Amino acid sequence: EEKSKTGRVNWRVYLTYFRAVGLLFCLGVVITYILAHGLSLGSNFWLVDWTDDARRIAQFNGSSSRGGGVNGTTVAPPAESWSRPQRIGILAAFGLLQALAIFWGAFISSIACLRASRLLHNNLLNRVLACMLTFFESTPLGRIVNRFSSDVNCVDRDLAEKWRTMLRIAFWLLEALIAVSFALPWFLVALIGIAAMFHGV
Fold first, then answer.
1. Which residues contact 40 (CB under 8 A, 6 or more apart)?
2. Which of 31, 88, 126, 156 is found 20 to 30 A from 191 (Cα to Cα)?
3. Is residue 5 in some structural domain?
4. Where does the ABC transmembrane type-1 domain lie (predicted)?
C-alpha cells in the first residue's frame, strides 16, 4: 500500500534536485541575483548621495558667507559635485543593468529548472521501464501514471517557482540588512540576538 510521508522534506531530496539542475546553472542564477540586488543597493546609495547635494550646497553657502568651513574645515564647492544630467544618467544605468541582471537570472533559472525536470523525468522513466513484470501486475496503472503527471508537474511548476521565490526573498532580506547596517552599524549587534531567537524557534 502506498503511503504519503509527512513532516519536513529530507535534505537529500533537495540535493537530488540541485544535482539535476547542475552546479554551473546554480552558480549562474546566484551570480545574477547578486548582481541584480547589488545594483539595486548601489542605486539606493546613489539616491542618498544625490539627496545630500542640497545639504552640501547649503553648507558651502553658509561657510562661504562666514569666510570658512564649519569648525575651520574646508568645504568643497558645489561645482565639484555631479551635475543633474550625470546623476540621472548614472541612476538610469543602474536601473538598466539591474533589469538585464533580473532578465538573465529569470532566463537561466527557467532553463535550469527545465533541465532538472527533464533529467528527473528521464531517470524516473528508465527506472520504471527497468522494473520486473511483477511490479506492473501488483501496482495499479493509475498510480504509475500519477507519478508521471502530478509529481512531474510539481517539479515543473511548484518546485521551480518556490526556488525562485526563495532566492528573491533571501536576497531582498540580505539587501535590506546591508542597507540598514550601513546606516545603523549598531544594528548588527541586535541582529545577532534576533538571529539567535529565530534559530531557537
1. 94, 98, 175
2. 31
3. no
4. 27-201
pLDDT digits (tens, 9 = 90+) for 125-182: 898 888 888 888 888 888 888 888 887 888 888 888 888 888 889 998 888 888 888 8
Tell me the three cell numbers of residue 77: 564647492
165-169: long-range contacts (C-beta < 8 A, 24 or more apart)?
167/29, 167/30, 167/33, 167/109, 168/33
Q: What is the Cα–Cα distance from 21 to 115, expressed in whole angstroms? A: 6
Determine which helix (DSSP H) or strand (DSSP E) holds 192, and give its type and residue range: helix 187-200
- 42 vs 36: CA distance, rounded Å: 10
Nearest CA to 46 among 89, 80, 76, 79? 89
Is 1 within the bounds of a domain? Answer: no
- Residue whose entry in the numeric block shows the C-alpha cell 521501464: 129
Q: 87 lies in a domain? A: yes
In the chain, how many domains are there?
1
Residue span of the structural domain in which 184 resides? 11-200
CB 108 within 8 A of CB 28: yes
How far apart are the C-alpha atoms of 118 and 127, rounded to whole Å?
A: 14
The verdict on residue 3 lying in a domain is no
